[in-house]
């Protein structure tokens, strides 16, 4: 049975198609009653699965076509970020944010509003200005920002059709450094959390919740921007790391991107992991919850209250800042968010009660779960938390009246109502 990357989900689909041409894809979609596209399978739940067929797009031409005049790239859905980044950099362009892992597909990452971090940097789907879709009847549909429904489209959870290509906005290429600092007491963050998360182009705070302290602060800075003052502030007592670090304390750092202030291209500093190094074969589970920036310290305190439970099933936890956007299903919809991520041990039975406890403690803060990770939030709560889920459901029904792209996940979460 085909599984996701982590191996915690066995896809129930009875057929897997790998078309090698657009016409073949259109014919498969048109003749199949139930079908969903799968990207690189890095989600930790059954979101990509289908009770009928799965379709993989890596057999289609892996186009990466940069339009220098427009500062955009047209990229095939199945291309992974590691490859995309290398190609756009060669043309003098960059993306301002990337996820921690470059091995994920562009279409799959945008579908779940996957994010990097940093002040003013939205989730990856916010770069999408156009989407090419094969709709339920096998027709081609192009949706772009001129369509009034477009805010429902870039992050689409696989429910609108099969994406074949995306156009992304680019910025000029840039160089960065990455510095890691060890050991910062958690109570310092009660006064300085957002200041610290905003102090550079991209910042990640890692903690294991064994004690009230941040184990590592990863500070990623553009070389053409002034060195941030925060790391010289009296309250910033963390010390520069004396070697390269892995986000899971104690693990070898050979799979990680270069640190210790060595300048390098944006795509070799923004992700935590190197594209040429496949990280541990998925021996982990992940969850993530995003609260409004104004509630971030309250979330920190709420998690700290249950840190023994969290620590017992945790590998590492990461705190990041992501900018607000207008996308209907985005966890950052109309609010700048602080995301609290958890890399758990790969024992679902042990992790699940802690996930529930965490959700209970973060519920008063209206924490929105990451769509691609482990969560148990009910359909009613999701509708209340995400604001425009009903509009998204209406769009999905409009494009796919018979529910071809529905699955157990879309039913359970009430995505189509
Ligand atoms: C080690 C690791 C690190 C991670 N780091 C981050 C991080 O830093 N930030 C973050 O936000 N998330 C992170 N994630 C989560 C990950 O980015 C998301 O789960 C993402 O959606 C995975 O992309 P994928 O291509 O593997 O998608 P899949 O899991 O294959 O699919 C996800 C969704 O996309 C849909 N989809 C995929 N391709 C298409 C297509 N062509 N047409 C229509 N729908 C499609 C699927 O149907 C499904 O609904 C991480 C995951 C792992 C395993």
Describe the structure.
The chain is of the alpha+beta class and 417 residues long. Among the domains are: 15-56, 2-Layer Sandwich (Uridine Diphospho-n-acetylenolpyruvylglucosamine Reductase, domain 2); 177-263 and 282-375, Alpha-Beta Plaits (2-Layer Sandwich). It has 10 helices and 19 strands. The protein has helices spanning 22-31, 81-90, 106-111, 186-197, 296-305, 307-312, 348-362, 379-386, 389-399, 408-412, and strands spanning 15-17, 35-38, 53-56, 64-67, 72-76, 93-94, 128-134, 140-144, 162-169, 171-172, 175-185, 202-207, 213-222, 239-240, 264-265, 285-292, 314-322, 337-344, 368-369. Strands 11, 12, 13, 14, 15, 16, 17, 18 and 19 form a 9-stranded antiparallel sheet that branches. The longest helix is centred in the last third of the chain and has 15 residues, at 348-362. The structure holds flavin-adenine dinucleotide. Flavin-adenine dinucleotide binds at residues 5, 36-43, 47-48, 57, 77, 99-101, 104-105, 107-109, 111-112, 114-115, 157-158, 162-163, 279, 370, 372. Flavin-adenine dinucleotide is lined by residues 5, 36-43, 47-48, 57, 77, 99-101, 104-105, 107-109, 111-112, 114-115, 157-158, 162-163, 279, 370, 372.
